[in-house]
TrEMBL record:
EC number: 2.7.7.7
UniProt similarity note: Belongs to the DNA polymerase type-A family.
Swiss-Prot/TrEMBL keywords: DNA damage, DNA repair, DNA replication, DNA-binding, DNA-directed DNA polymerase, Exonuclease, Hydrolase, Nuclease, Nucleotidyltransferase, Transferase
An MF annotation (GO) of this entry: 3'-5' exonuclease activity
Occurrences of domain 5'-3' exonuclease (ranges): 15-276
Highest taxon, organism lineage: Bacteria
GO terms, biological process: DNA-templated DNA replication; double-strand break repair
Lineage, broadest ranks: Bacteria, Bacillati, Actinomycetota, Actinomycetes, Actinomycetales
Native organism: Actinomyces ruminicola
Name under which the protein is recorded: DNA polymerase I
Residue span(s) of domain DNA-directed DNA polymerase family A palm: 681-888
Length: 925
């Protein structure tokens, strides 16, 4: 966020009061950010909350208020609507996606310790004006953040309005001089001008033919609105007559736009609105639920916290113990060549073996990694080394320690650290613990698991503050006087702090995992999965760039052809990526039915256009949708080509701590989103081929794993029998639901039942099902009822899952993976329903993720134990892709079928399909 002037200096003794119009700024945030980019995995829109909170944090950082309040309007009328029923009546209906976001925002503000204020019968503007007047009487400087120009009347030498001129990211500082320059009147007379001109957004009509310049001239000439009215008969011309004809409107406007400054709010700004500090746990919980990873980081950096002062004052606190760590740096405290001696003195092998905390600085990507600095610590002493400064003896000593499998190491992001060190020719072995994985299992909704975030959450230590330079207080032997300007020294100090905190952090997390019942899941599954993924990422997958180049050429032609078809259907050329031009063609020229209204016009997002095409079948939409699809595929191909490493392979990064359900994701590039059910996607898969020294690729995937888990967990005999029948599952289930023979089931019936089955497993509501199937909610509800009539135990299971989770506060998978859902008991309906959908989704999708992870570990261990050269390359949700060494195909297939089929015991068999081929497409089955 930025303002048009320099932010103010530090507050004076009386304090600085920041007042915000909650609804006004939330609406602006809603229209400033696209809804489709701010939706949680449970389907809750959050763009208004995100935009508001982002703006608020920027205001705290830039304006440094000591006191804060956010005012909200209440539902129902006010004294203004009682006098004039048409007041604000022309405003658009509240967008469906905005519904509930104000309540979520209020929950965030409560966790932040920010007072929210309402007053029945009055608007937020009146609350702000009253508090602004009170604050100034108490000697405070006041800032009012509002998108309502009526707030300009509060502007004084001690009160500035921060008025948004671009979304909520750019605010203009409306001072007395600024108001007068822009409107030609002093702030207290701005409502006089508005009474004459009118206010469209409030549905207050002004005097026809009288604009701001004329109104301002009259106000200056006759000393205010009362003078204008008193001299109305003297004002000549059409404007004067228009004024006389509409005096009643002017007087009404003035009554309504006058902000009250004497409401009885029962608030003393100095005492009641002081920023006392956020509730760290409550804020983390709601930020996690809203999936605001970046805002969580910013909040921890900017907000004061109610518990911030306790830890640092205790000499035995984690923070105090961390500050007592002796830190040495190669090149400052340890001379080149003396690293081995330092390690022998400070980190010697002991009985019992003591672990070492390791922090690696550098590029952590597979195939492109590079370590530039490392830090080692046992919690009492720490050594930090810029790897470019090491002499051969130092490098040999460090390399030997890092490669020692018998010396346990605690490493955050052990997988990325391995890649960074491996690129330097340094082996990392003996990784015993990874706090990022431990933190993930303790709080799977948390959005970040870096050492700083974990130390803040579990130890109450602000590493950033500890590692910042302090005046006249050296923090380590290698701190330079110019530390603030010495980036390498600052980086080294931060690395040393992270290394030193790893051991106490891991101990705290292990205790948390023990309490949460997930310690075995950590040691027996997540840590072995991380080791398996490290090998997969390092191997990468071979890619034929010539095939990708051919696909790119084909897609270029498809993009051009689709654009030409769209131009022909529209009758002229246009920018198919411009929402504004598309709105003109669709709704003005082609007269198509209007889509959802947004601030910038009628939406042209993908869902809206697809729905419009179903209604109209218009060729312009057909070509437009084709154009968008081709561009998306072309971008995928372009990204893949850029990702090919010098070894001719793509090394993706598997993310283990992103999805709360336990599913893995893939990034840089994402190899899990290449379409598998379209011809275009399969043609892209042809480019992924077998590498040199290997004979084929092998794919193995689970058939309908979520539905098998549903049958197992629910114990529904009808569903279990459907699997045992040997018939096509969805056709069999559709026959049961509709009471017809299997041969009578239509493709549409099968498709609807398939969507229903998977929708239940993913917590899909009746409304969501109707939207997915393109039917009305009544038909979707009927299908749901018919389904449950046949599969009653499924219904009972789903009901039980939510109720059990409501009692426990969490739900869990077959492997014991927990997902904490405190919002199941929330008074906020939106948050409660989000949590209910998550409770339905987590046990089934999470169990499927755990089974696939177990299969990965078992397959990798079996390959190694059998001495086979074949290796796993990719995991695509319920599919594994392996590269097979010559002569090993049959043995590997048999082993994969056995390990995947035996990864869990279910009441229905885990069916595994296997295929082989020289490329990914050919290996499909």
């Amino acid at each position: 966020m930025s303002t048009t002037e320099t932010s103010p200096a530090a507050p004076d003794a009386a304090g600085r009061l920041l007042l915000i119009d909650g609804h006004s700024m939330a609406f602006r945030a809603y229209y400033a950010l696209p809804v489709e980019n701010f939706t949680t995995t449970t389907g809750q829109s959050t763009n208004a909350v995100y935009g508001f909170v982002s703006m608020f944090l920027s205001l705290l950082e830039q304006e440094r208020p000591t006191h804060v309040a956010v005012a909200f309007d209440l539902p129902g009328g006010t004294f203004r609507t009682q006098e004039y029923a048409e007041y604000k009546s022309t405003r658009d209906e509240t967008p469906p996606a905005f519904a509930g976001q104000v309540e979520l925002l209020q929950d965030v503000l409560e966790a932040m310790g920010v007072p929210t204020v309402t007053s029945p019968g009055y608007e937020a503007d009146d609350i702000l004006a009253t508090l602004a007047a009170q604050g100034q009487r108490e000697g405070m400087e006041v800032l009012v953040c509002s998108g309502d120009r009526d707030s300009f009347q509060t502007v004084t030498d001690r009160c500035t309005v921060l008025y948004p001129i671009k979304g909520v990211s750019t605010l203009r500082r409306m001072t007395p001089a600024e108001v007068e320059e822009r409107y030609g009147v002093a702030p207290e007379r701005y409502p006089h001008l508005a009474a004459l001109v009118g206010e469209t957004s409030d549905n207050l009509p002004g005097v026809p033919g009288v604009g701001p310049k004329t109104a301002a001239k009259w106000i200056r000439l006759y000393d205010g609105l009362d003078g204008v009215i008193a001299h109305a008969d003297e004002i000549k011309g059409k404007a004067g007559q228009s004024l006389r004809d509409h005096l009643d409107d002017v007087l009404r406007n003035r009554r309504l736009n006058h902000l009250l400054t004497d409401l009885d709010l029962g608030i003393d700004p100095a005492a009641d609105l002081k920023l006392t500090g956020a509730d760290r746990e409550a804020l983390a919980r709601i930020m996690d639920a809203l999936e605001f990873r970046n805002l969580q980081h910013r909040s921890e950096r900017i907000l004061p916290f109610a518990d911030a002062g306790g830890a640092g004052t205790d000499t035995d606190s984690p923070a105090a113990r961390l500050e007592a760590v002796t830190i040495a740096a190669v090149g400052h405290d340890v001379a080149p060549g003396d690293v081995g001696q330092w390690l022998g003195t400070h980190l010697p092998p002991r009985e019992p073996v003591t672990p070492i905390g390791l922090d690696v600085v550098g590029v952590m990507r597979p195939g492109q990694g590079d370590a530039t600095m490392i830090a080692l610590s046992d919690g009492a002493a720490a050594l930090v080394a810029d790897l470019s400064l090491l002499d051969p003896a130092d490098e040999e000593a460090l390399t030997a320690l890092l490669a020692d499998a018998d010396r346990p190491k605690v490493v955050a992001d052990a997988k990325g650290s391995w890649h960074a060190l491996h690129a330097r020719g340094i082996d990392l072995d003996g990784v015993a613990a990874d706090p990022s994985l431990a933190g993930y299992l303790c709080r799977p909704e948390q959005r970040s698991y870096d050492v700083g975030s974990l130390a803040q959450r579990w130890l109450g230590i602000d590493l950033e503050a500890l590692s910042a330079p302090q005046d006249d207080q050296p923090q380590s032997a290698f701190d330079l006087e110019s530390l603030a300007d010495d980036a390498p020294a600052a980086t080294a100090l931060a690395a040393a702090r992270r290394a030193a905190v790893l051991l106490p952090l891991q101990r705290a997390l292990e205790e948390q995992m023990r309490q949460r019942g997930v310690l075995d899941l950590y040691t027996d599954l997540e840590m072995p999965v991380a080791a398996t993924l490290t090998g997969m990422e390092d191997a990468g997958i071979a890619v034929d760039d010539a095939v990708l180049a051919a696909r790119q050429t084909e897609l270029d032609a498809r993009v051009t052809h689709a654009a030409e078809g769209a131009f022909a259907a529209a009758g002229h050329e246009l920018n198919l990526s411009s929402p504004k031009q598309l709105q003109t063609v669709l709704f003005d020229e082609l007269k198509m039915p209007k889509t959802r209204r947004t601030k910038t016009g009628y939406t042209t997002d993908a869902d809206a256009l697809a729905s419009l095409y179903v209604k109209t079948s218009h060729p312009f939409l057909e070509h437009l949708l084709e154009h968008r699809d081709a561009i998306k595929l072309r971008q995928t191909v372009e990204g893949l080509r850029k990702a090919i490493a010098p070894d001719g392979r793509i090394h993706t990064t598997f993310q283990q701590t992103i999805a709360a359900t336990g599913r893995l994701s893939s990034t840089d590039p994402n190899l899990q989103n290449i379409p598998a059910r379209t011809e275009e996607g399969m043609r892209i898969r042809e480019a992924f081929t077998v590498g040199d020294g290997y004979e084929c690729l092998l794919t193995a995937d689970y058939s309908q794993i979520e539905m098998r888990i549903m049958a197992h967990l629910s114990g529904d005999e009808a569903l279990i029998e459907a699997f045992r029948s040997g018939e096509d599952l969805h056709r069999y289930v559709a026959a049961m639901v509709h009471g017809i023979g299997i041969d009578e089931v239509t493709p549409q019936q099968r498709g609807h039942v398939k969507a229903m089955s998977y929708g239940l497993a993913y917590g899909l509501s009746t409304f969501g099902l109707a939207r997915q199937l393109g039917v009305d909610t009544a038909e979707a509800a009927g299908l749901r009822e018919a389904y449950f009539a046949r599969f009653g135990r499924v219904h009972d299971y789903l009901e039980h899952v939510v109720e059990q989770a409501r009692r426990d506060g969490w739900t869990q998978t077959m492997f014991g993976r927990r997902r904490y859902l405190p919002d199941l008991n929330s008074d906020n309906r939106q948050r409660r329903e989000m949590a209910e959908r998550a409770a339905l989704n987590a046990p089934i999708q999470g169990s499927a993720a755990d089974i696939v992870k177990q299969a990965m570990v078992d397959v990798a261990e079996s390959l190694t134990a059998a001495g086979l050269r074949s290796r796993m390359l990719l995991q695509i949700h319920d599919e594994l892709l392996l590269e097979i060494a010559p002569g090993e195909a049959d043995a590997v297939e048999e082993m994969v079928r056995a390990r995947m089929g035996g990864a869990a015991e279910l009441s229905v068999p885990l069916d595994v399909s296997v295929g082989r081929g020289t490329n990914w497409r050919a290996a499909a089955h």
